[in-house]
User: Which sequence fits this backbone?
């Protein structure tokens, strides 16, 4: 389990590096990352603090995202496989 979490965090750091070099990085302040949430083609973009990455509930979503999509998103963010409402509820508990 610790190895898997380490791999998720390492992948997240790589994602943050790629965000800082992308053209969309202007929209993402330092200390935050872009995630895409939603079903099928109707994904909504959220900008969340990187501190979320260390929370166990968010790590479960990251593992699920890795299994379903990998960590490469064509729009420069991370795709989270859940509904917007579930993500909003989680984000409100984390903040």
Assistant:
């Amino acid at each position: 389990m610790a190895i898997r979490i380490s791999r998720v965090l390492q992948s997240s750091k790589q994602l943050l590096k790629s965000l800082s070099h992308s053209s969309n990085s202007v929209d993402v302040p330092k200390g935050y990352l872009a995630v895409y949430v939603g079903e099928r083609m109707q994904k909504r973009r959220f900008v969340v603090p990187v501190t979320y990455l260390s929370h166990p509930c968010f790590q479960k979503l990251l593992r699920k995202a890795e299994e379903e999509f990998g960590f490469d998103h064509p729009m420069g963010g991370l795709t989270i496989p859940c509904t917007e409402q579930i993500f909003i509820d989680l984000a409100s508990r984390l903040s």
